[in-house]
Amino acid sequence: MSKTEYNIIGQRPARPDAIEKVTGQANFGADFTLPRMLHGKALRSDYAHARIISIDTSAAEKIDGVKAVVTGRDFEHMTPGGAGDLTRDNLAIEKVLYHGHAVAAVAAISQAIAEQALSAIKVEYEELPPVMTLDEAMQDAVILHEHNLKDGKPSNIRSYEQRSAGNIEQGLAQADEIVELEFTTPTVHQGYIEPPACLANYNDKGQSSLWSTTQGHFPLRDSVAQMMQMEQSELRVIPAEVGGAFGGKIATYQEAIAMLLSKKSGRPVQMRMTREDVFRTAGPGAGSKIRVKVGAKKDGTLTAVSAWLAYECGIGGGPMAGGVRAIFAPYDIPNVFVEGYGVYVNKPKVRAYRGPGAPQAVLAAEGAIDELVQKLGMDPIEFRLKNAVREGTESHNGIFRKIGLVECLEAAQQSEHYKTPLKANQGRAVSAGFWHNGAGVSSASLHMYSDGTAELATGSVDLSGTRIALAMMTAEELGIPVSQVSSIVADTSSVGFGGNSAGSRTINATGQAAVEASRDVVEQMKQRAASGWNVVSDQVAWEDGAAVNQATGERLTVAEICRTADGTGGPIGGRYSHSAVAGLGPSFAVHICDAEVDPDTGKVSIVRYTAVQDAGTAIHRDAVEGQMQGGAVQGIGWAMNEEFVYNDRGAIENPGFLDYRVPLASDLPMIETIVVEVPNELHPHGVRGVGEAPIIPPLAAVAGAVSNAIGVRITETPCSPPKVLAAIQQKG
User: Which residues on neighbouring strands pair with residue 417, listed in sequence order?
Assistant: First the structure.
């Protein structure tokens, strides 16, 4: 538990957005409308890879009710590379690069007329071979982006990173046991329920407005302004409630298209993706191929590890860096060599998926360690405790400050789950995962009302209960009930810059901003009280929501100070902006999975699951436990069933939740949680962030449990019945 005693932090108050969401009053992306609003729709390619010869929109433009048409040529000022590649992901310019790639868009007075206009657009293509796999892409026989060069030649290798320590060959020579394995994972979907939607209203005489379902309205503003050749000040972005994201709603999809349609038509334009659009064209989680080699002495001391990681980028982006950071991160190993590749394939630009790159990397690392532990005849947790990183450990991720991995492993080891015997056809596996935790730029503004209540405004979109957590930290600082703090997500014109709600950064970075803004307000209230008592503020303490004259014992509450604020210097408010350093408050998670396998069919059932995680300080315990459970469920689905299935033309054959099967409640046991609290010394309340780490161990935990149940190592996810049954039959 945290050593600091809190009055509010660590409790479970009701979320302020709960009532609106369960009663249907909350406004999501598709709920915003304006008078004279038009409906925007995109024409999507039936090819996965093709050069665009010509686009004829003349017939569409003549249809009564069509008010604007755009093509990629309207964005030709965005040159290839960087933001230009993101622009081309939204709307193809020279080539279509995945099946469903948008090539044109229209705005019309009704959705029916918009659909009619799309069918009137004529596009001539030169079809090119689609490159769908990492192996094929890395051969560079067919190039997706001619501007991307490697060693002076066009290449599909987008990025490369290498990390090393010690001497890998010497380390392997010292090992008594060596395990070498190769793992593959498919392209997956984040599984958010709400399809992206936006409403754009261009104003050539003032500030334009954009409403969107997004994880970061400030980065979205900057991206759309760049594509539209606008100044940032000319565009205001208003965030909607978000019906799930998990990293999938970070970059733009259709907002710049809607804004250009609005500019051309002179009217507001709403654009919505269909569910099929989402599966075919919205940024998926990356597929991967990873090779690992692990060596250890007979006593279980790890001597050396090497890893080769390749991740899909789609047509841009990619999570390779996260995988390189995460692989073997929980272990103190003297000799390490890791190299990672980000690779272009004919799929949409990869977006983040909760701990991007790390689940795939940990599947490979923990799978090899599981195999090594069995060869050595050791207890899986004892092995991990022997090699665990601790405070002061130096690794390829730097020198660790105070961390809670050992505490997580000990909590798992002491759990009832770990001590419970298995039954026939069941297997158990333990997996440890790491996430460095993001930070970046955040801002907060705090305004005090005359009745002593407070309004906290930040630029961080609430995806998982961050509004209530930020309110709790503010209330803790002010010494007032959390019910007296209103926590809002302000638009881009109403608060200082805030980065994306992603990477487990919000409660860390924005939390620090909220705390500092609150402390600013407390100092102002102490000064107001000191002035009334004719003392200096150093003679005034702040206790339980009141200024206390240390000489006389007199008290003035928040409400009393704010009631007279107009006459003592004006309204009281504070603000704070900063750029926090990423990686200084990392989080570790340890998961235990019990799986049962039907030996006749290969069907896998998860019979028990426990998630242990170091939260630093759990601000809102329900939210922390919910994050842990939600991440575990997503990871279980990824490990068990989920994968995009492509045909030979590069088209997805399962573009919907009927055929892309996420876990149902009936598929799962209750996810047991154990919250460990080893405070982050660099956060005023010890926060580490909890959003990413829960999804990192499950792939390895599930695949390991299945492997241990059948006695054959599963190295390809998902652990679907056909794959598992084939492994059983191969074993004989």
Answer: none
